[in-house]
Amino acid sequence: MAALVKRVSPGWHLYNNWNFTMARFIQKGNFRRKKRTLTSQRVFLLATEEIVIAPPKPPKDISCTKYKAASNMYKEEVPNPYFEFRNKLCKEFLEKDESFLICHRNPVTASAVYDYRMKLKQKGFRLVFGMTNTLLRKNIPGTKFEALAPYLVSHNVLITSSNGSDFRSLPALLRKMPEFILLGGYVDGMLLSRDNLMKYSKLPDLDTCRSETAGILSLIAGGKTSSLIYSHAQTLGANLKQYEKQIKEESD
Amino acid sequence: MSTKVYLNFYNTNAAWVIKSLSKPHSYVQSAAYMKIKVAPNYDDIEIPEKKKLRMMDKVPPPVLHTASNLAVQQRSEAKYCRGPEPIHNKLNYGQYGVQALDGGYLSHKHMDAWRLYINSKLTNVMFAEWRIEPPWKPVTKKGTGKRMGKGKSSISHYVTPVKAGRILLEVGGEIEYKQVYKMLRHVAAQCPFDARIISAEILQKEEEQKNWIATNNLNPFSFRYCARNNFLGIKKDLSPYDLKWSGKY
């Protein structure tokens, strides 16, 4: 009966709670076990919750020019003499204006790296591991190497020339090194991507280009045009008149 | 004898030289840069004379103003454990400590266990100190099988009440957070309430965050204002402690 009266009476849902029914055997008070919150309390807490727009973190996939400014806003860089020394080396490397290529480095064993290094050394190239992506990304903005930022993302390797050797032979060499994937680089004062590098490698030598131009110039000296120009005055005049008629007919 | 010579020859430098000559180019060792971590500076730290935790009494000294000098029973009042700790919530030595996140009682068993463990782990360049009182609050218990009534029972043991935010222990010296964490995580786990291991940096960051949130809050309806002015008729469902502490304790 009492149970029925309790259920029928108003406020039953408030008292159908273990914490309200237990009045005995609580010696130290119920401040350890949190009470169940009512819907009205939960609504009130949500309405009075603090609304704060936190400062945005710098996104990862932004260009190199904004990366430095954004990362400096949210981080205090503690000066470290070791990193300053390495920064200095990186700046000197970029100021030298030497041509270099960037390759992506897949997982490779140390013995294979040694073999590749020797092959490149035979051809006059040098593998550089010390120039890390973080260092290059810090020192690139504001220089002509800004466009190389998308290549400086994951495990990379730089290839430079120690004797000023030609970079056109490199793509053929790199076919024997499957773990090094060509991405791009800076060659002869030009920023080149992979496709442009392959085209550049197919270009002929300076000597062949010179011989070709000499041949073209020599055609002018000893060819059909020269025979026409140095012919007799009458034949020259008749040929010129005919040429004039042809042009007029084409224009009409 | 011949086999011994063969094995020894392979481990000499001559063998290494011959091996390297068999390759097309000689192997040139390259030096790498060594990353040296700078050691932290501990010149500002003063280590006190008494480095170890002192022993706490099980029973407090007798109360002298009573007639018979006997201990008197007390009520089990929740006011000693309710709400935030207003005074002992900062680090005196500015290094590391254990902070209570909830209220509760600590007995002599807890204190003795922590004292023995921490004193065994302390070194010459470390010190520890209590930030709580020895047990003073009497807790009564009825014997087994006794019925209700017949007055208040006798005192069985003593406890110290602790509020949320109180610092229980402080540890300092020439140590870092990682070393202290290994030592104090057992203390925090054995507490009958939630506890955490803090340093001065953590407390400072939390204060800065709190101040930043308070200044940059865009919600004009704060808990304190709405509760005191009975928005949504919420005073019916709130306790007087919610009005005092804005629903946090």
UniProtKB/TrEMBL annotation, chain A:
<dbReference type="InterPro" id="IPR043141">
    <property type="entry name" value="Ribosomal_uL10-like_sf"/>
</dbReference>
<dbReference type="InterPro" id="IPR047865">
    <property type="entry name" value="Ribosomal_uL10_bac_type"/>
</dbReference>
<dbReference type="Pfam" id="PF00466">
    <property type="entry name" value="Ribosomal_L10"/>
</dbReference>
<keyword id="KW-0687">Ribonucleoprotein</keyword>
<comment type="similarity">
    <text>Belongs to the universal ribosomal protein uL10 family.</text>
</comment>
<dbReference type="GO" id="GO:1990904">
    <property type="term" value="C:ribonucleoprotein complex"/>
</dbReference>
<protein>
    <recommendedName>
        <fullName>Large ribosomal subunit protein uL10m</fullName>
    </recommendedName>
</protein>
<dbReference type="InterPro" id="IPR001790">
    <property type="entry name" value="Ribosomal_uL10"/>
</dbReference>
<keyword id="KW-0689">Ribosomal protein</keyword>
<dbReference type="GO" id="GO:0005840">
    <property type="term" value="C:ribosome"/>
</dbReference>
UniProtKB/TrEMBL annotation, chain B:
<protein>
    <recommendedName>
        <fullName>Large ribosomal subunit protein uL16m</fullName>
    </recommendedName>
</protein>
<dbReference type="InterPro" id="IPR036920">
    <property type="entry name" value="Ribosomal_uL16_sf"/>
</dbReference>
<dbReference type="GO" id="GO:0005762">
    <property type="term" value="C:mitochondrial large ribosomal subunit"/>
</dbReference>
<comment type="similarity">
    <text>Belongs to the universal ribosomal protein uL16 family.</text>
</comment>
<dbReference type="InterPro" id="IPR000114">
    <property type="entry name" value="Ribosomal_uL16_bact-type"/>
</dbReference>
<dbReference type="InterPro" id="IPR047873">
    <property type="entry name" value="Ribosomal_uL16"/>
</dbReference>
<dbReference type="GO" id="GO:0032543">
    <property type="term" value="P:mitochondrial translation"/>
</dbReference>
<keyword id="KW-0689">Ribosomal protein</keyword>
<dbReference type="InterPro" id="IPR016180">
    <property type="entry name" value="Ribosomal_uL16_dom"/>
</dbReference>
<dbReference type="Pfam" id="PF00252">
    <property type="entry name" value="Ribosomal_L16"/>
</dbReference>
<keyword id="KW-0687">Ribonucleoprotein</keyword>
<dbReference type="GO" id="GO:0019843">
    <property type="term" value="F:rRNA binding"/>
</dbReference>
<dbReference type="GO" id="GO:0003735">
    <property type="term" value="F:structural constituent of ribosome"/>
</dbReference>
